[in-house]
Amino acid sequence: MYPPSRKDFISLTLNDPHSHTYNNGKHRRQSCWRKWKQLSRLQRSLILFLLALLLIFGLLSYPSMTEQWRGLSDREDWLELNDRDVKDIPPEVKSVLDQAETKAPPPVAGPHMGPAVDPDAGADAVVGPRAPNVPILAKPPIKNKTFPNKRGPPSLPKDGNISDTVGRKKQVQEVVQDEEGEEVDKEKKIVSWRGALIEADQATEPPPSNNEKEAAAPPAPANPDDPVPPEVSTGTVDRLEAVRDAFRHAWKGYKEYAWGHDELKPISRSFGEWFGLGLTLIDSLDTMWILGLKEEFAEAKDWVEKELSFDKNVDVNLFETTIRILGGLLSTYHLTGDQLFLEKAKDLGSRLMPAFKTPSKIPFSDVNIGKGIAHPPRWTSDSTLAEVTSIQLEFRELSRLTQEPQYQEAVNEVMRLVHKLPGKQDGLVPMFINTNSGQFTHKGVFTLGARADSYYEYLLKQWIQGGKTEDDLLEDYLQAVEGVKKHLVRQTGPSRLTFVGELSHSRFNPKMDHLVCFLPGTLALGAHNGLPGDHMDLAVQLMETCHQMYQQMETGLSPEIVHFSIQASDGPNLIVKPADRHNLLRPETVESLFYMYRFTKDPKYRDWGWDILLSFNNYTKVPGGGYTSINNVRDPVNPGPRDKMESFFLGETLKYLYLLFSDDMELLSLDKYVFNTEAHALPIWPSPPK
């Protein structure tokens, strides 16, 4: 028998004459504390853990709950007025408001819903009153739900035949969105980007906030019955002007927020540095010259003359610096004849030469252009094969112009070494090469994507540049194309799309980088220069596939990587994994479209390029200036701006689009010039006398 439990307190209730009740609550609280102390440490820990879980669950569920409530209350928030504001509204406006409330259909709720819009007044006409000092965004157009599987730019009808573009009606009203079409409240430092509210003066590159990730729907499809303004007709001249407008808009952002720096961050209106050498500016020089933008070119040239210096204690990547800066300076020199650019190219070329001082003559990946010291990456002694074999066009041309042979000798030695190396498979090469041993590493993995792509491109282009006299280069190129056809080319099951996959230790992977879309243009260039006709057949097939990588995406923009279905089923041809859905404004597809149109004159290639330009304008254009990479090409409502404009968007993408739309076949004729892998044109050397 246990003794009866001891009472720790006495609960006492007393009534006073005035019926006031007294309760010893204080002792009750003390009793609770005693009971808590009587619990074991394990029991108390368990209770605290459960409370913590409840708290975390509540915090996680809070954003979704508030998002639902916000969708219900947006309209009231936008239309909320105080009494003084209502009194100031004229009687005739009040009558219009009353009619709008009673007759207009209710607006569709959305996360960035604006005031009600009169459907007869156009997309920008706001019927409801605006509260003073409240930034009001234009109402995001509602996504067309009639065609849930519609792909590509919102205003372009997509038919079932994947290659038939004849008879397609071009909705060109969308071509160039007005830079003033979305409001910027400078006093509040808030920028509207596709419905997102973003602080305009962010400094660096912070993780994207929820507001930055939210983007409104693309512009609604234009009414085919509306008249087309003459300045945006479908003619070639207007397409050229559309490219100029796109360049001006991108340049406006760079000039205002990133002048003299490497890259523009258009969302935060700031800049990013890679080497600190004005990368975007130099990469864009020849594009401005080709597009006839004389004022912009003069400003950039002035900066090169007065501000550009390579005497800096900075590590640069040999490959990127060569193709973007050295190539850009050499190309601009050839187009303008201005010695300023050649002198800058000579200075840079000499500072890059220490990279070749290795035991194997295979260059290091990085070099300090101020100290003259080169080194491999910190994590490996390997260099990427594409990087060491895609600098030849530029260094060879520098030797020809300066009559200093050391540049050409250094890069030619690299090609001689790679030519005789073991470890290839029917002309296909591994992705890495060791700077100490000079041998391939990571053998058995073959791709035409990142780390190997431009090796194959430069085999052909060096042969063309040198007057078609270097047989080893031609031999390696022809053997590689046969290896690609034998090991890497496959077709999808459902629609028979031809694609180029990857090989890893004899195992095929149906994965294709967007970078591989350089290949149709390169194959076509080879066929144009007398190589086998089946190269052109493969180019046509691959060009269709690269087009579908855009066409089948909801934004009309290609993802970075696509996987293909090779099973005989009715499923989709293209599979895009969540991590691969970003678009970096890359040029490879429009590059190949340029080559294909030059050699075939088939207008569908121009139409495909036009679709891409429209999609860039619809989903990547930032109102304050510039274009941004996006995170998700499968979500037209929220493509997710990444706040970065790569230099190659101006140096390559817009340049190739302009050349694609130009009727002047002598503008950088492909019988006179060869383009480096950054779209900088270098002259083809005269053939030596026989």
TrEMBL record:
UniProt GO MF annotations: calcium ion binding; mannosyl-oligosaccharide 1,2-alpha-mannosidase activity
Region: Disordered, residue numbers: 101-188, 200-234
EC number, UniProt record: 3.2.1.-
Membrane protein topology class: Single-pass type II membrane protein
Keyword Zinc-finger: no
GO cellular component entries: endoplasmic reticulum membrane
Cofactor: Ca(2+)
Active site: 320, 453, 560, 588
Gene Ontology biological process terms in this record: carbohydrate metabolic process; ERAD pathway
Compositionally skewed regions (Pro residues) per UniProt: 218-230
Key word Membrane present: yes
Coiled coil regions in record: none
Biological or metabolic pathway of the protein: Protein modification; protein glycosylation
EC category: hydrolase
Catalytic activity annotation: N(4)-(alpha-D-Man-(1->2)-alpha-D-Man-(1->2)-alpha-D-Man-(1->3)-[alpha-D-Man-(1->3)-[alpha-D-Man-(1->2)-alpha-D-Man-(1->6)]-alpha-D-Man-(1->6)]-beta-D-Man-(1->4)-beta-D-GlcNAc-(1->4)-beta-D-GlcNAc)-L-asparaginyl-[protein] (N-glucan mannose isomer 8A1,2,3B1,3) + 3 H2O = N(4)-(alpha-D-Man-(1->3)-[alpha-D-Man-(1->3)-[alpha-D-Man-(1->6)]-alpha-D-Man-(1->6)]-beta-D-Man-(1->4)-beta-D-GlcNAc-(1->4)-beta-D-GlcNAc)-L-asparaginyl-[protein] (N-glucan mannose isomer 5A1,2) + 3 beta-D-mannose; N(4)-(alpha-D-Man-(1->2)-alpha-D-Man-(1->2)-alpha-D-Man-(1->3)-[alpha-D-Man-(1->2)-alpha-D-Man-(1->3)-[alpha-D-Man-(1->2)-alpha-D-Man-(1->6)]-alpha-D-Man-(1->6)]-beta-D-Man-(1->4)-beta-D-GlcNAc-(1->4)-beta-D-GlcNAc)-L-asparaginyl-[protein] (N-glucan mannose isomer 9A1,2,3B1,2,3) + 4 H2O = N(4)-(alpha-D-Man-(1->3)-[alpha-D-Man-(1->3)-[alpha-D-Man-(1->6)]-alpha-D-Man-(1->6)]-beta-D-Man-(1->4)-beta-D-GlcNAc-(1->4)-beta-D-GlcNAc)-L-asparaginyl-[protein] (N-glucan mannose isomer 5A1,2) + 4 beta-D-mannose
Tree of life domain: Eukaryota
Chief site of localization: endoplasmic reticulum
TM region positions: 45-65
Cysteines paired by S-S bonds: 517-546
Key words, A-Z: Calcium, Disulfide bond, Endoplasmic reticulum, Glycosidase, Hydrolase, Membrane, Metal-binding, Signal-anchor, Transmembrane, Transmembrane helix
Gene3D superfamilies in UniProt: 1.50.10.10
UniProt function note: Involved in glycoprotein quality control targeting of misfolded glycoproteins for degradation. It primarily trims a single alpha-1,2-linked mannose residue from Man(9)GlcNAc(2) to produce Man(8)GlcNAc(2), but at high enzyme concentrations, as found in the ER quality control compartment (ERQC), it further trims the carbohydrates to Man(5-6)GlcNAc(2).
Family: Belongs to the glycosyl hydrolase 47 family.
Protein name, UniProt field: alpha-1,2-Mannosidase
